[in-house]
Design brief:
CATH topology of the largest domain: Rossmann fold
Shape: globular
CATH architecture of the largest domain: 3-Layer(aba) Sandwich
Largest sheet: 9 strands, mixed
Number of strands: 16
Order of helices and strands: HHEEEEHEHEHEHEEEEHEHEHEEHEHHH
CATH superfamily of the largest domain: P-loop containing nucleotide triphosphate hydrolases
Helix content: 25-40%
CATH class of the largest domain: Alpha Beta
Number of domains: 2
Distance between the termini: 74 Å
Length: 375
């Protein structure tokens, strides 16, 4: 009888439930069924299916996207002609249960300790203005396009710019003290800029900075990442020292320009990391030449050789030399990484090469001592 009904065009509700349940929530990176977000699925009439979607919050910023994906999944099932999506919010008990599940029994401890398989790169520079955040943003997208699961932690709490570079300007959803990183262009993001008004200054000192970074690592549902990029503030201050303490297996990527002034200051950051036992994964020279948008000529506006000299000085690899072109500059203003907006630009091609050259093996530093203490 069941076979005759299906042959006559009846809808298989179990097939609908499986299809819709497999839709992934982009913030949780979980299937709706696994996250407890799929409610009742029924057939009120003919080929019309009614699906109850249970969101983590009534004001879920991805509501429209999830409704669209649920409709698409359901209409792909044979016999479904229309989909009605009814949206509800989870109860407090359900939210608490989901938050506990996402933490996985680790409490407030962050997931990037020595037992983690995630590669952590701290992207640092000696001084501001060398394009460190732009390099971080585009490198993250390049790694994501290689099929890696990538997160970016904007630890430049005074001069945060990751929200601008990715075009994301909303606060994160919070589940009982656990924040969900914001997805954009295949990467998940967290920044103090998501928690503040656009022009609100951050006036924090050492202990507050330490606590903030600790929370951004431990109270964010990063999921199962392959790579975490941490955009450091320039210099050798409190945030850099905190990262050395909290993420002992991180590796440093040093960004400089060809100028001797930038090179010499960047060397101090590398030496600080080395003194504390943090490996230096390599040097990235940004703004190596200016690329003319009309004739494609390359002009060394900021001199030449700074990246090579720095790499030789600190005994590490020069991973690449990124030219400065119009797509790289304008993309930051538009809020779309150049890796997305201008994939054929000279700067973007070089970032892709750097992503392919990054060291991929974690370096275990078990047993090392930290001579630096954050107070």
């Amino acid at each position: 009888m069941l076979a005759r009904a299906r042959a006559a065009g009846a809808v298989d509700l179990e097939a609908v439930r499986r299809a819709v349940g497999a839709v992934r929530d982009p913030e949780l990176d979980l299937a709706l069924a696994d996250a407890g977000m799929l409610g009742e699925v029924r057939l009120p009439r003919g080929g019309t299916v009614r699906v109850v979607l249970r969101l983590t919050t009534a004001t879920c910023p991805l509501r429209a996207e999830l409704i669209r994906d649920v409709r698409s999944a359901a209409t792909a099932v044979a016999g479904v002609s229309d989909v009605e999506v009814h949206v509800e919010a989870m109860s407090e008990t359900e939210r608490m249960s989901l938050a506990a599940r996402l933490r996985g029994g680790r409490g407030s401890r962050h997931p990037f300790g020595r037992e983690s398989s995630t590669l952590v790169y701290a992207v640092g520079s000696g001084k501001g203005g060398v394009g460190k955040s732009t390099v971080t943003a585009n490198l993250a997208v390049a790694l994501a396009r290689q099929g890696k699961r990538v997160g970016v932690l904007d630890a430049d709490v005074w001069g945060w710019s990751i929200p601008q570079l990715f075009g994301v300007r909303r606060p994160p959803v919070a589940l009982k003290g656990l924040m969900l990183p914001l997805p954009a262009h295949g990467v998940v993001l967290m920044s103090v800029g998501f928690l503040l008004e656009h022009d609100e200054p951050v006036v924090w000192r050492g202990p507050m900075l330490h606590k903030a970074i600790e929370q951004f690592l431990g109270d964010v549902h990063w999921g199962e990442l392959d790579v975490l990029l941490i955009d450091l503030p320039p210099g050798t201050g409190d945030v850099a020292l905190t990262l050395l303490e909290l993420v002992p297996d991180a590796q440093l990527l040093v960004v400089t320009t060809p100028q001797p002034a930038a090179q010499h200051v960047a060397a101090r950051v590398a030496r600080m990391a080395r003194d504390a036992g943090m490996p230096v994964a390599g040097v990235i020279e940004n703004m190596s030449t200016h690329v003319c948008s009309s004739c494609d000529a390359h002009t060394p506006l900021f001199g030449a050789g700074g990246g090579e000299r720095l790499a030789a000085d600190i005994e590490t690899a020069l991973l690449g030399q990124i030219p400065l072109d119009l797509p790289l500059r304008s993309s930051g203003d538009l809020g779309v990484p150049a890796m997305v907006a201008s994939p054929d630009a000279a700067s973007v091609v070089e970032v892709g090469r750097i992503a392919a050259r990054l060291p991929v093996a974690r370096r275990s530093l078990v047993g090392r001592s930290l001579p630096l203490t954050v107070v």
